[in-house]
Structure formats: C-alpha cells, structure tokens
Amino acid sequence: MTVPLHPGAQRVLDIGRAAGGTPFEAGSPQEARAAYDAGCSTLQGDREPVGAVEDIEIAGPGAPITVRVYRGKHAPASEAPALLYLHGGGWVIGNLESHDDICRWFANLAGCVVVCPDYRLAPEHRFPAGLQDCAATLVHMVGAAEALGIDPARIAVAGDSAGGNLAAVLALMARDGDVPPLSAQLLIYPNTDAAQTADSYRRFSQGYGLSASTMKWFRDHYIRNEADFADWRVSPLAADHLDGVAPAYIVTAGYDILADEGEAYAERLALAGVPLVRRHRPDQIHGFVSMGRHIPAARETIQEAVAAWRSFYPRLDPA
C-alpha cells in the first residue's frame, strides 16, 4: 500500500512548481548552481547557533581545500567525536552554505566537531577529483586531531545523496586501509549505482523533485566515461563485498528515484553482517533533510543518525 506524500513534502513540490524555472539539465552547471543557491534559503531549516564556526584551508591533491569546522555547543574542548560531512548536489552543485543547517544540527545533537569540505565539483573536476578532496580532508582530520580537539578513533563520515555516495566510498576505502579508519558511516538517501537502472527511476522519474533526467545529467558530468559505471568508487553497490566496513546508518525516502539502490545497499550491508540501523521514510521525497523549513522529518532524521552513531561506540572498545 502506497503511503501518501507528507504535507510538507507536497508543499515543497508545490513551491517548486509555482516558482517555474527550467530543469538543471536545460542549462549549464553554472546556471544550475545559481538556481540551487537561490532556492536553498526557502527550504532550509533553522541555522542553529553552535559553539564555534571557522573556515580554514587545508592542503588538497589539486589545490587548497576550503573546509568549514563546526564545534557543537556541548562538544568537549579536546578528544571530541568528529564527523566528516560531505554535501549532496549530484557532484555538480552544492557548497558550504547549502548544507550549513544540517552540519549545525549534527554538531549540536552529537556534541561533536563537524568538518565539511568544499570539495571540487564536476564537470570542471570530474571523478575522482571530488573524492580525492574528501579523502584528503579525512587524512587531515586525523593528522590535525589535537589541533581540532577531536578523538581520531571516533571519526565518522556522513553525507546525503551524492555526498552519501562519497561517504559510502570512503567507508570502503577505510576498510581497505587506503584512508584512516572510521567509526561509522551515516548515509542519507545515498546514490550507490551509476547505472541508474533500478525500478524507482521509472516509478518516480518525474514530478517528485529530483527527476531521472536530472540525475542522468549529474552523473554524466561526474564520470569520465561509461566504464566508470562499474567502478566501485563511483558505484559502491558494485563493490565485490561490503564485509568489514564501518557500522552504518542508512535512510531512504519513499518517493525518490534513488530509493531502490539505497535499499539494495542497505540489504548488502545487512547480508555482510555490518552493524546497521536502517530507516525508510515512505512519505518523503529526495532531499527532504535539506527542507527543514517545511519538513519536520529533516531534523528528526539527523537525530536518528546521531543515535545510531552513538549506538556503535561500544565497538570501539578493546575486546
């Protein structure tokens, strides 16, 4: 039985239709970024005060990376848990401002330090440039743990949509020793399969916010060629196995073209025996966590993710 759309989600869709405008794929990436940035303030949740916010520059593989560091109100001054947050936006749009509310929620609710990199975007910087920036940020967090006042043994990664894709890939890299270890991966409606053949692409191809044609446009700007579809660093669902990755929280939305691939990834995590907290919001659309002004489930989902992260802490204790 299909669950009706939440009134807040319907309101967001109505706002989008009333505003008009052209789909992202009808214009340039620069035009898409400008349109996305202009609409964020009408959808975002409250920007909660946090203990401190600072933009810094760190060394990156291509150029210096601007990183925003949030210290939650109740985060300890030293050895605080830390979260690497990777923003969504199809690897093409999004920035430090577009997900500022989510980072603030995480910082306060978890009493942690959140680090959010302004990683390089496609198509100017195609795969794996953005991923490399995210990996470099994680390496920096461990190396600068004392200066950041964080506990390097309690770093988690989180992200939404394309950011969820990057977070899942980093968790696989961490398992394999290519980047420092992670205490958890918190995946919010992640993109896990660049092939885009899941049935949810048909069921929700248009009319529910993120359309199938827009997602194809995002992907085609990100990848170098179709051979990248099968690369697990683009499609983590294509990884040989998920055994040994960090404990995971994963949430999917009912009216989302990415719903089926997110559920498929959660199922593989479960089959691999990975500690897992799995949630499904059947009445929500893609991107709802960035729509806190209209959708209460936005902040509630971050609360759930924080609770899941905390539940994984015992795994960090010596046997």
Please give a structural write-up.
The protein is an alpha/beta fold and 319 residues long. It has a single domain, classed as Alpha/Beta hydrolase fold, catalytic domain (Rossmann fold, 3-Layer(aba) Sandwich), CATH 3.40.50. The chain has ten helices and eight strands. The chain has helices spanning 7-19, 29-43, 100-110, 129-143, 145-148, 162-175, 200-203, 212-222, 259-271, 297-312, and strands spanning 52-58, 65-71, 80-86, 113-117, 150-160, 184-188, 248-255, 276-285. A hairpin with a 6-residue loop joins strand 1 and strand 2 (65-71). Helix 3 (100-110) packs across helix 10 (297-312). The radius of gyration is 18 Å and the shape is globular. 52% of the residues are buried. The model has no long low-confidence stretch (mean pLDDT 96).
Q: Count of helical segments?
A: 10
Counted up, domains total 1
Please, what is the average pLDDT?
A: 96
Strand content: 15-25%
Shape category = globular
CA-based gyration radius:
18 Å
Q: Report low-confidence residues grouped into runs of 5 or more.
A: none
Q: So, CATH architecture?
A: 3-Layer(aba) Sandwich
The spatial strand order of the largest sheet comes to 1-2-4-3-5-6-7-8
Task: Give the ordered list of helices and strands.
Answer: HHEEEHEHHEHEHHEHEH
Q: What is the first-to-last residue Cα distance? A: 45 Å
CATH domain class: Alpha Beta
Biggest β-sheet, characterized? 8 strands, mixed
Name the CATH superfamily classification.
Answer: Alpha/Beta hydrolase fold, catalytic domain
